[in-house]
TrEMBL record:
Signal peptide: none annotated. Residues 39-58 bind DNA. Residues 16-76 form the HTH tetR-type domain. This is TetR family transcriptional regulator. InterPro entries: DNA-bd_HTH_TetR-type_CS, Homeodomain-like_sf, HTH-type_TetR-like_transc_reg, HTH_TetR, MftR_C. It comes from the Bacteria. It holds the Pfam family TetR_C_14. PROSITE patterns: HTH_TETR_1 (PS01081), HTH_TETR_2 (PS50977). Keywords: DNA-binding, Transcription, Transcription regulation. It comes from Amycolatopsis oliviviridis. PANTHER family: HTH-TYPE TRANSCRIPTIONAL REGULATOR BETI, HTH-TYPE TRANSCRIPTIONAL REGULATOR RUTR.
Length: 210
């Protein structure tokens, strides 16, 4: 059963808002100046908080750049719940992509922020490594969810892990192309195109034989 999104109290809303303010400020400053030219003090001052408050939200400036939302774990869980609640007649890859669309739409809705974030990650390998590590804890639960929906054993069957890896690659390809087009194409439309290509067996353009 899909659980409704929780109603947030004032304190929790304030926490999420402060996190967002710090994250967007960090992205903007790093995109403008470069990672090495930005300090925690710079980010804190620009966001109107103290460095002590900054460290209540992030352990480092790198984390402030790559972690867009304080409730990242809760968002991942809601995606899994939406995925599992999708009717069985919908293909598993399509069900997964549809479940994450609401969160993924924020790439289009917050274009400048995500262009800045991707520019920073592209220019700094340490940020790329941090972004990958950030998603580590979501891998096992997502594989378990795919296995549950398909009735497979995640430890014995290849499909759940392969599907997650394939869809993760598709998402990375979509974001890369979106960034190369300076965000002037729809990330959601690119994501739909990517999953349709995968469902079709990734045919070569022009119908060339393999």
């Amino acid at each position: 059963m899909l659980m409704p999104e929780p109603v947030l109290g004032l304190r929790e809303r304030k926490r999420l808002e402060t996190h967002r303010a710090l994250a967007t400020t960090a992205v903007r400053l790093v995109a403008e100046r470069g990672l090495d030219q930005v300090t925690v003090e710079d980010i804190s001052a620009a966001a109107g908080v103290s460095p002590r408050t900054f460290f209540n939200y992030f352990p480092s400036k790198e984390d402030a750049v790559v972690i867009a939302h304080a409730d990242n774990a809760e968002r991942s869980q809601r995606i899994i719940e939406k995925f599992l609640a999708t009717p069985k007649e919908v293909s598993t890859p399509r069900a997964f992509v549809d479940a994450l669309k609401e969160d993924f739409a924020q790439v289009d809705e917050n274009r400048e922020e995500w262009l800045g974030r991707m520019k920073a990650i592209h220019e700094n390998p340490t940020l790329h490594s941090r972004a990958v590590a950030m998603n580590h804890d979501t891998v096992a639960p997502t594989i378990e969810a795919i296995a549950r929906r398909t009735g497979l054993d995640p430890k014995a069957d290849l499909y759940p892990t392969l599907l997650l890896s394939t869809l993760g690659g598709a998402i990375n390809a979509v974001l890369r192309l979106w960034y190369q087009h300076d965000g002037e194409v729809s990330a959601i439309e690119l994501l739909d195109e990517a999953v349709e290509l995968l469902l079709a067996g990734l045919p070569e353009p022009g119908g060339r034989a393999r």
